[in-house]
Design goal:
The protein is an alpha+beta fold. About 25% of the residues lie in helices and about 20% in strands. It has helices spanning about 20-25, 60-65, 125-135, 145-155; strands at about 5-10, 15, 35-40, 55, 85, 90-95, 110, 115-120. The strands form three sheets. Strands 1-6-3-4 form a four-stranded antiparallel β-sheet, covered by helices on one side. Strands 2-5 form a two-stranded antiparallel ribbon. The radius of gyration is 16 Å and the shape is globular.
Length: about 160
Amino acid sequence: MCGIAGIVSFKGLRDFNPDEIISMSEILKHRGPDDEGFAFFNSTDNSPGTAPMIAGGKATPQEVFLSSFPYSPKQNISNLPYQDLKYRVSLIHRRLSIIDTSPAGHQPMCTQDENYWIVFNGEIYNHPEIKTILRSKGYEFRTKTDTEVLLNSYKEWGFDCV
């Protein structure tokens, strides 16, 4: 079972504290020993569409750093420029690989257009059927994960996807 955590700041941008974020991930280590991922939103300024800052950690496999997915980290959280980094939302994920054990299942994960992000713990038993419906609507899939199906379901139907 994966572990998820995060921080939401309702009072504006928050200073990045790597010790706090890494500690939150370490507390969840028993829930997801296979990988860890981090995403920070509105991390450089407050303008709409600012790309998130994404990072991996000590538990992130090397092949995840080398993969080409838009949500794949290219740097370790301990190497982020924390003196200058501020954010509104952070997402933390500890992964227990079950359905798609490849780097494609790394989280936080985003849609192809990078507009929707998720950390997810659970299993969608009918995700193959939902994936078929979404493919008929023109959606393309890069992974075999139920998480990607959930993201695209939300993109297509909003809260009605559940």
